[in-house]
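Case study 2.
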Amino acid sequence: MKPRGPALLWLTGAFMVGIVLDGHVTLPHVISAFGAAGLLLSLKTIRDRGRARAFLVGILCLCAGVIHTRAHQYLAADHIVRHAKSLGSRPLTVEGVVVSEVRRRVLVNTVKTSFTLKMERVMVDGTVRAVCGRVLVNLFAPVDVIYGDRLRLTGKLHRPFEFSANDNFSYRKYLQNKGVHYIFSVKRGNPVAITGQDARYRWRAVFLEARRRLIGYLKGYLTENETGIMQAVVLGERSAIPPHVRELFVRTGTAHVLAVSGLHVGIVALLVMTALQLLRLPRSWQYVLTIVLIMLYVLLTGARPSTVRAAVMSVVFVGSLIREREANALAMLSCAALLILLNNPLNLYDIGFQLSFACILAMITIGRRLERAIEPLAERREWKGWRRRLLRAVIISFAVWIGVEGLVMYHFNLITPVSVLANVFVIPLITAVVLLGTGLLSTALCWPWLAAQAAVCLKAALSLMVAVTFLCARLPGAYIYIRPIGLPELALYYVIIGMIFGMPWGIIGSKFNLFQLWSKN
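Prediction:
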């Protein structure tokens, strides 16, 4: 039986291409729908299950990506976007529900409170309009609001401004991908009233309150900068990372360790399974409880695309253990991508989503192919023990660098050769940091003395990780800034990578081993 992973990856890739095409090609909805229907009918006329059928299925998935993206972006007749022009820049009173985490930033003489508001009504000039849609509220006052609160606010509606000089990033488009088309600004002194709490969002408020308390525990044991890093690494709250630390990790190609992703979810899952084994529960119960706790951890960290991807793959893997069947890595990755994109196709434009999937795909494809290519070299006696493990770590780091470098060039105008070296050292250190951080949070409530010991070790691990990253960034040629590249250059990069690593006749392929000559010497 042929593996289903490559086939599912092909269909997922076609679906992604359809999402991208929707943003660059304008076709009437009727043509897209009839095209998909025609392809679906043509499948029945092809009895051959070979390349022709696979090609048509791929085109069908492409059309499905286009149609699904357009359906997701459809705006109802009462959407705020359809009313914004008639409302103008006049002061408005709006009512709605807070549907995001509330962020506060201290300014010179006030506090800026920001959150997403799901709108229900707009009152202007004595008339009330029922509306829907979301707006980003910037409230310049220290108001104590939480997720799920019903509010009545008075302010002005305006389009988001563009702040970035990078042609590949648009703040306005970034908000639109999150379903936010307008910003509602509330000046200090404008009336703000909390009219109640929406019970439908109470469960989400519980997780946000739990995360707020856990961040409070971190602040009790760590400095401000250390807390900013740890709440990003363990709890998924990245807004408090010190800017100089963030820039340092971006320049060395190790910024992925500052966001909760597959590595972090895997470590937490391993801790959970180890703890459950110590309780001597039946193995099936261990697996089920591990799945439940992974899902709770994802909700605690904000359920970002990269975290959801890692959770889906972890759940599928644990499920395969329950069924006693081997899990296919490509199938797990493709399944995770489809679930995330079916929920919101615009997640494809999320940088975290792109880097997370490119990283794992590179490890599965490029990493495995490189490992097979160096196998004759690794079998030599002088490469036994720690040398072989180090060689494999370098190979995986190189594979990840190759896989994500195109996206790094596209989004950050940066080439990071030092990433291959930096990841070899940073990955073990971030593993220790996550373990110690999880231990600190687990013991802070019941055993403060044990949490204090974990905090001492955590401080040392954090300092060492930042120091290693700093030293890597200081190496000659560690990173190179380049001119901005566009989508054609990005596509060309991955086409070349596919030709080198993805084909059996490529430079690193199953029919040609680049390292055989060296290993025979």
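Residues 504-521 have pLDDT under 50 and may be disordered.
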